[in-house]
Every structure is written in structure tokens, then in C-alpha cells.
Design a protein that fits this description.
Family: Belongs to the adenylate kinase family. AK3 subfamily.
CATH class: Alpha Beta
CATH superfamily: P-loop containing nucleotide triphosphate hydrolases
Bound molecules: guanosine-5'-diphosphate, adenosine-5'-diphosphate
Structural class: alpha/beta
Function: Involved in maintaining the homeostasis of cellular nucleotides by catalyzing the interconversion of nucleoside phosphates. Has GTP:AMP phosphotransferase and ITP:AMP phosphotransferase activities.
Helix content: 40-55%
Order of helices and strands: EHEHHHEHEHEEHEH
GO molecular function, one term: GTP binding
Number of helices: 8
Strand content: 5-15%
Catalytic activity: a ribonucleoside 5'-triphosphate + AMP = a ribonucleoside 5'-diphosphate + ADP; GTP + AMP = GDP + ADP
Organism: Xenopus laevis
Strand order of the largest sheet: 2-3-1-4-7
């Protein structure tokens, strides 16, 4: 019997850099399960779980949820998909989270979307999401077929409370202070792969080529 080799990847980048958009494309081509910390937290907030109630005030203020809360939540989810290759989006966001993740799993690659802050700000005010699936739209870049309606389910789209300009500014500052050191952490481990640019459509072919060298494309015609 051939042992199955699991591939564990993380996608990083400032808020609005395109992590969700690129992740959607990655999972269309490669057999990776996508786990987004933001989507998971929003589901918890909506369902008013214990974690959701704690997380809500931090998210609304553009602050990170405490390390112990998010780390427990994510590791619990990852253990549920232990037999699968995965792509983790939005976690880790602090060095302490990265160290906790390292203790539990070996990370093969970290994809870093390096998009200038100036480019990001305008994108987020035009972002609309379908909360149940995590599908992401943009009124200019990838509008839904019908305004404010999800293409696949026909359900309403929403704008995130934390995509207001003043909250975005806070989130970007938080990224600089707390998350940038995580890039250095992974750089030192030799697993960081940075993709720089201002447009997802130009960044994507490079991300695709990088992954294709490591994984079979399951969507190839
Ligand atoms: N104008 C523009 N918008 C983009 C581009 N790539 C993604 N977006 C939109 O920018 C917003 C943020 O992207 P998202 O994937 O949610 O970023 P994340 O916060 O890193 O997960 C969404 O509304 C996307 O549809 C791009 O190249 N140009
Ligand atoms: N790893 C994490 N650590 C702490 N807080 C997190 C983490 N992931 C998500 N959050 C919280 O959820 C919010 C939304 O996250 P996310 O959807 O990933 O935003 P974006 O895609 O715009 O970067 C963050 O601003 C933060 O409050």
C-alpha cells in the first residue's frame, strides 16, 4: 500500500489581500480542504456560541481575537480533518499562534500575498460576502450576477461590519504589529513563498504554478 502524503499549507496576507479569493481558486484545482478562521469565527458569532460571544467585540473593533480562544478553535477543527490535506486561511496571525500550530502539525508551505495597503483599502468597502459559504464578491472586481445575491444559492449577500474604513485602518495596523513577525518566523523555517502584486489575476498564475509543482491538479481537463 502506498502511504498517502498529506500537504499542509497556510495562506497569509493583510486583510483584503485576496486570501479568500485565491483560496477559492486553489480548492478548485487542488485537493485541499479550505479552513478560514474568519469564516469560522463569523459562523460562531452568528450562532452565538461561547466563542462567538467572546469574539464578536474584538472583531467589531478590528482587533484580533485572543490567541488562546482562536488557537483552541482552529486546532479542534484541524484535528477533525486530520486525514486530509488542507489550506489554512487567516491563521496563524501571531507568532504565538504559529508556535502552537507547529507543535500540532508540520506545515509544508506558507503562501504570502504581499499586496500594498493602498491597494487594499478601496477593495474592502466594495466587498460583499455570502456568510454561509464564505464566497466573496466585489462590486467592481467580481460582482455577483444579481446585485447583493449569491450566484449559487440565491441567498442575500452582506457587507461585513468590520469593513468600514476606520476599522480597516485598525486591522491593517494590527497586521503590521502582530502578523508581520509571523512572516519572518516562517521565512526562518524556509517555508515562506511570497507573491507580490496589486491584482489577484496577475498573482494567481504564480500561486498556481507553485502549487502545481507540488500537487496534482484535480481539475485538469
Ligand atoms: N479590485 C480588486 N478587487 C479584488 C482583487 N482581488 C480580490 N478582490 C476583492 O477584494 C476584496 C478582498 O478580497 P478577499 O479575497 O476577501 O481578501 P482577504 O481579506 O485577504 O480574504 C473582495 O471583495 C475581493 O472580491 C483584485 O485583484 N482587484
Ligand atoms: N488567527 C486569528 N487570530 C485572531 N483573530 C482572528 C484570527 N482570524 C480571524 N480573526 C478575527 O476575525 C476578523 C476577520 O478575519 P478575516 O475574515 O480573516 O479577515 P480578512 O479576510 O479581511 O483578513 C479579524 O479582524 C479578527 O478579529
Amino acid at each position: 500500500m502506498v502511504a498517502r502524503v498529506l500537504f499542509r499549507a497556510v495562506i497569509m496576507g493583510p486583510p483584503g489581500s485576496g486570501k479568500g479569493t485565491v483560496s477559492e481558486r486553489i480548492v478548485k484545482h487542488f485537493a485541499l480542504k479550505h479552513l478560514s478562521s474568519g469564516d469560522l469565527l463569523r459562523t460562531n458569532v452568528q450562532n452565538k456560541t461561547e466563542v462567538g460571544v467572546i469574539a464578536k467585540s474584538f472583531i467589531d473593533q478590528g482587533q484580533l481575537v485572543p490567541d488562546d480562544v482562536i488557537t483552541r478553535l482552529i486546532l479542534q477543527e484541524l484535528h477533525k480533518i486530520n486525514e486530509t490535506s488542507w489550506l489554512l486561511d487567516g491563521f496563524p496571525r501571531t507568532v504565538s499562534q504559529a508556535m502552537a500550530l507547529d507543535k500540532a502539525f508540520h506545515i509544508n508551505s506558507v503562501i504570502d500575498l504581499n499586496v500594498p495597503f493602498q491597494t487594499i483599502k478601496g477593495r474592502l468597502t466594495a466587498r460583499w460576502i455570502h456568510p454561509a459559504s464564505g464566497r466573496v464578491y466585489n462590486t467592481e472586481f467580481n460582482p455577483p450576477k444579481v446585485p447583493e445575491v449569491d450566484d449559487l444559492t440565491g441567498e442575500p449577500l452582506i457587507q461585513r461590519e468590520d469593513d468600514k474604513p476606520e476599522t480597516v485602518t485598525k486591522r491593517l495596523k494590527g497586521y503590521e504589529a502582530l502578523t508581520r513577525p509571523v512572516l519572518e518566523y516562517y521565512q526562518n523555517k524556509g517555508v515562506l513563498e511570497t507573491f507580490s502584486g496589486t491584482e489577484t489575476n496577475k498573482i494567481w498564475p504564480h500561486v498556481y504554478a507553485f502549487l502545481q509543482a507540488k500537487l496534482p491538479d484535480v481539475n485538469q481537463k
